[in-house]
Amino acid sequence: MPFRFTLLSSALAVLAAAPAIHADDWPPPIRALVAEGLEVHGDFPAPDGLTGYAASHQGREMTVFVTADGQHAVVGTLIDAEGNDLSEAPLDELVRAPQEDAVWQRLEESHWIVDGNPEAPRVLYTFTDPNCPFCRQFWEAARPWVEAGEVQLRHVMVGVLQQDSPAKAAAMLGADDPETALHDHSIGADEITPSAQPRRIEDMVYRNNQLFDELGLYATPTTVYQRNGRLERVDGMPSEERLVEMMGGAAP
Fold first, then answer.
1. Which residues of 85-124 are buried (b: 16+ CB within 10 A; e: fewer)?
2. What tens digit of pLDDT does each residue of 75-110 get?
3. Alpha-carbon torsion 200, 201, 202, 203, what sign?
4. Any signal peptide, and if so, which residues (predicted)?
């Protein structure tokens, strides 16, 4: 079953869609919850005169239902007589989708090494640590699609596994030809070694590490890609079946 990509950081939740209604128009219970740190992403109609609000708090998504008189609110999931969850679709539309857009934008703005055809129709972001053996396995497993020009990998270089990982990641980002440096390191032909880099290069690794933490990631490689308009996330080395799904089809 596909792994739903969700934000685990309130810092990124702030980047999601702005509230659909102005704060001055919120009923008193919603204003009270907002004062306690709730972030409202939008409202939606609900049965029996209720008004629903799709919201999040410290990265946790939730729905709030306000009574017709606007004076009372219930936080939780609304279920109809057939057992249908009436909260799921609004959360998907108003919270998750905008947050995923924000994540994709953060990935685009991160510091990565391109691997493959710049015009490839499919793009995957993968968090790569130079000391990660599974990152090398993933690099090798992706070769048929990358070399055929069907997939472009964007290696977001992080230093999280060993003490010298940040310096190695910086050396790779600061290389004269980062793509070649990544290639040679991945096949074991020319292992990257730590070396002094300008502050701006070291800062790239620091920011990538921050993004890794803000997304609640814990493994390398972790790969994020788009499927049917939504984000999917794969932690670690994917199975053969999952690899084919990630790449958009069987190996050419």
1. ebbeebbeebbbbbbbebbbebbeebbbbebbeeebebbb
2. 999 999 999 999 999 999 998 888 889 899 999 999
3. positive
4. 1-23
Instruction: Quote the number of domains for the chain.
Output: 2
Same domain membership, residue 230 and residue 131: yes
Q: What is the DSSP letter of 101?
A: H
pTM: 0.82
Give strand ranges (E) for the chain.
39-45, 51-57, 60-66, 73-75, 112-115, 122-128, 151-157, 222-227, 230-235
CB-neighbour burial class of residue 17 (10 A; exposed 0-12, middle 13-18, buried 19+):
middle
Residue 185 DSSP SS3: helix
**114 plus 84 within the same structural domain:** no
Q: What is the spatial distance between Cα 110 and Cα 125, in angstroms, rounded to a whole number?
A: 10
